[in-house]
Amino acid sequence: MTPVVALSGIVKRFPGVLALDRVDVDLFPREVLGLIGQNGSGKSSLVKTIAGVHQPDQGEMRLRGRPVRLSSPREACGLGIGMVHQEQSLVGALTVAENIFLDKPTDFHGFGWMRWRRLFDAARRQLDKIELDVAPDVPVATLGFAQRQMVELAKVLAIEETVEGEIVVLFDEPTSVLGRSDIEALFRQVRRLGSRASVVFISHRMDEVLDISDRVYVLSDGVKVAERRRGETDPDELYELMVGRQRLVEDRAAAPRRPPPAPLLEMRGLGVPGRVHGVDLRVGAGEIVALIGVQASGAEELCRALFGLHERVTGTIALEGRSVRIRGPIDAIGLGIGYLPAERKAEGMIAGQSIAENIALTFGLGCGRGGMIIDRRRERREAERWADRLRLKAPGIGERIDRLSGGNQQKAVLAKWLLGANLKLLVLDHPTRGLDPGARADLFAAMRDLAAGGLAILMIGDTLDEVLSLADRLHVMRDGAVTRSFDDLAAHPPAEEDVVRAMV
Ligand SMILES: Nc1ncnc2c1ncn2[C@@H]1O[C@H](COP(=O)(O)OP(=O)(O)OP(=O)(O)O)[C@@H](O)[C@H]1O
Q1: Could you tell me which residue ranges the ABC transporter domain spans (predicted)?
Q2: Residue 148 DSSP one-character state
Q3: Are 235 and 216 in contact (CB under 8 A)?
Q4: Does residue 412 have its Cβ closer than 6 Å to ligand 1?
Q5: 404 CA to centre of ligand 1 in angstroms
Q6: Taking Cα atoms as reference points, which of 444, 451, 455, 458 lies closest to residue 389?
């Protein structure tokens, strides 16, 4: 059978980095091909080459048997290749409908004016495909992060309307920001697409890759190191192939019980108008407390309120027994609170600056207060220590942060908070997003060490498994309020049904 896409001997270099080293790929008609590998192993570079974003330095690409050299994503799109990007590519000021058809040849412009009705109807059809209840005429800037991700998906699925015959759809980690119901809607689409499309799917969740893919390629340092068919492998083998070490199964029940710590953070009746109501919550020094909930559960807003990112917060917050007012991030940092936002790209990093400068940002702020001189050498040493600890892959700590792979950018933003000078409370919104399974294990170990050293950690978990392997206590949130709490998770892990029932 002729592959729809065949890459042979593809080499892609960036300054100081060999991102793809003579990679061969065959994508057959109507198959779903999974792509896994550690952060920085070359997965995005590979799909971006197929999508016309990158031009390879060497090697050949064939599309439906014919050699092609794609000079742009637009050209790829015209040939039926679409990509759902890891970093979102929508234009905030334009409507959902305009975004969906932005890069496609359409007849919505007629005699100098826009045929809005037609455009909105066509967009509605795309949104219905993914069961997305968003109005086509609202500006994208008014949507939440996960909704924007789903609009990205609708945008790519709309290629079906403009291209005859089979199409190629590339997903670069589409699920890392989605909740469970959105992931299920996405998977239904991927399976439906299987009847007329070939799909490449990148994900760090190995059970997910095995669930959706017919075949899996494993990349390591730009080299394709293994290929497996579904049914020939399992998550443990995939973990070993990509991380190069065995997956540790943790026995949480064996962990020694600690006495309940004195509360470091205590909130009473915390509210954010329209989003969070009457939350009482306590986090002790050395304790890891998790929040979990579906989209708009209020967990994210609660964390943002703690970092001073909401103006009108009601209720009280006490730190180490003293009532505090947090009017903005500077107040929060001054009080020893660190915050890792879910939208790291928009809020967590300064593109164009180096890894070292980004990591040192908050450390510098903490040290600079009260006229203290910032010790740059120590700053750099600390930054290097955390970069090492999280196995951040980069040519050097002086490299620009926006040139790193997505997962390594996440690590740099994480490191920024982990080295906070006078940190007492660390608030982590979905800390494992974008991290490969090995990096997750490294982060979990670092979080446990930090907690053992007395840091209080409040985190929003992506999955119950993640929460159970890490946290001491769990609060489930729904519609802005805590619906159920579980203590002493190590000794009494809750049943999944009980947690899910409290979430929905
Ligand atoms: N535009 C760029 N400029 C410089 N280097 C780059 C650029 N894009 C990628 N790289 C480098 O190429 C290598 C492969 O990156 P790539 O994004 O393909 O990895 P990945 O497997 O997708 O990682 P992740 O899981 O973190 O998303 C990395 O070392 C990265 O720093």
Answers
A1: 5-246, 249-504
A2: H
A3: no
A4: no
A5: 5
A6: 444
